[in-house]
Amino acid sequence: xxxxxxxxxxxxxxxxxxxxxxxxxxxxxxxxxxxxxxxxxxxxxxxxxxxxxxxxxxxxxxxxxxxxxxxxxxxxxxxxxxxxxxxxxxxxxxxxxxxxxxxxxxxxxxxxxxxxxxxxxxxxxxxxxxxxxxxxxxxxxxxxxxxxxxxxxxxxxxxxxxxxxxxxxxxxxxxxxxxxxxxxxxxxxxxxxxxxxxxxxxxxxxxxxxxxxxxxxxxxxxxxxxxxxxxxxxxxxxxxxxxxxxxxxxxxxxxxxxxxxxxxxxxxxxxxxxxxxxxxxxxxxxxxxxxxxxxxxxxxxxxxxxxxxxxxxxxxxxxxxxxxxxxxxxxxxxxxxxxxxxxxxxxxxxxxxxxxxxxxxxxxxxxxxxxxxxxxxxxxxxxxxxxxxxxxxxxxxxxxxxxxxxxxxxxxxxxxxxxxxxxxxxxxxxxxxxxxxxxxxxxxxxxxxxxxxxxxxxxxxxxxxxxxxxxxxx
Length: 474
Ligand code: B12
Ligand code: SF4
Fold this sequence. Notes:
By secondary structure, this protein is of the alpha/beta class. The chain has helices spanning 2-5, 46-57, 73-80, 95-108, 119-123, 125-129, 146-151, 185-189, 236-250, 267-280, 293-298, 300-310, 324-329, 336-355, 376-388, 406-413, 438-445, 450-455, and strands at 22-26, 63-66, 85-89, 113-117, 136-139, 159-161, 206-209, 255-258, 287-291, 312-320, 362-369, 392-398.
């Protein structure tokens, strides 16, 4: 099937990977594959994996290294020497690194060409157009354009509209050995490359995988919808076969992370998953995957079946806020009631499983603070919801105005975004929006307002006082 979709291009003069003049640069903060800042910084890029797999299957070899494997910009510069093509998957959060890398590449390889694609090219084209170093900028999906673009870049205009597959069934399995390796002995020890390291969601080695692309909702802080046209989901059996193969070739797999933005959608697919995963997988590996509170409420029996029968042990839900006012501001299309319904249901299921000696599922609970328009009382309600949740791994972030999202675009236009091309990169307590009372939020997380938060609580299930360490990059 693969060759029909991506007709073989003639093998280029680059020969094998080691002599290749084409470089794919994996992007991320310096040092994150040496001595990482946190577990999620080590995860691999499926866009890079997919497109390099397609290129290599078509005889277009690329060398690759990661800025995450380097500890200085001098090292990046040294490793970039002698290439005539640089390819990058640019997301907004890696844009500063891509920008700097492009400048260095052109400085040392002035005749070289730079091909950039990825989320940021789609949502912030103007920003990338203003940087002359980006020779070709591809918006949207790249799987059906990458071969021609890399073989013959001069035949394309500067801005290219990408071409995607109709369904993820058409994607080849990623050759994971094309991903960057951990670059220190210490990190390599528990990394399980080309699987990925564990991050407290399940046992190592971790296999990350995608079953669906693009979420149909339109939360105003998220730019998912502005990005890739909807496409068919990866068939259940294909996904199980891939996991089985990974287990044999690179395993053992300890747990799986399903990186879909929205896993708990499309009941027909989920029913098939409930039926086949426990029967066909070499092991029923526990996994992390994302849902929404309203779909849990819409299909509670299905939710329960997925949890119990397929070991959906870490349930990521974008609760975002415990206040209807804020949920409306962000067009979450979920209510406080939906959130509490999902929390109560998982608690009930977890209590029952624990009583039977099984491991109870836990929420990976995504929470945002500092949304424009949020009042102190709204924020108290959100922390109240967090404290009410019995089994929770809280992931709290200060709202970040990403380009391409409705709210992000508006705040950027109003001059209220503090994210710049030198610093999209947000550390947990970075101040991202003008006019937000960040000192208040810091005190809230440090427990200073616990009396107010606890006041409205029927059941305090978390006696944790300080949520500072739950603050994640955003
Ligand atoms: C998995 C994932 C993660 C993982 C792993 C990230 C990683 N290392 O890859 C984790 C959990 C770590 C993560 C974290 C975050 N993420 Co994230 N993540 C995703 C997710 C769900 C899937 C990414 C993916 O693999 N997609 C599938 C691949 C195949 O697509 P792709 O990489 O875009 O590549 C395609 C095209 O872009 C194009 N392409 C790419 N490169 C090139 C190059 C050329 C030359 C061409 C022609 C084409 C091309 O072709 C590819 C195939 O179609 C996306 C949502 C999404 N649907 O993409 C969000 C997403 C990328 N994440 C996002 C955000 C905001 C974050 C966080 C900041 C969230 C947070 N609040 O913490 C953090 C930041 C992490 C950090 N390091 O700082 C945003 C990015 C917004 C933006 N404008 O860039 C997205 C789009 C979600 C969203 N809708 O808001 N994320
Ligand atoms: S925040 Fe989640 S539910 Fe909302 S549009 Fe983005 S991926 Fe979908």
